[in-house]
Amino acid sequence: MDKRLTSAEIAQLLAQYLNDTGSICILSYFLEKVEDKEIKPLIELALHMSNAHIEKLTELFKAEKHAIP
Prior knowledge:
This protein has helices spanning about 5-35, 40-65. It is mainly α. It is elongated and about 50 Å long.
C-alpha cells in the first residue's frame, strides 16, 4: 500500500518550494553584482543548492500528482 503525503507535509513542501524559488531570484541577482571573490563561491553554492531543492521538490509533487506551484 502506497503512503501518501499528509496535508501538513505538502504544506511544508510548498513553503520550501516558495522559499527556494525566492532564494534563486535573490541569489541570481547577487551573483550578477558580487565583487568579492571570497563570497562569490558561497553564493554559487547556495544557488546550486536551491536549484537542487527545486528539482527534488518538483519530483515529489509529480509523484504525489500534486500541482507544481
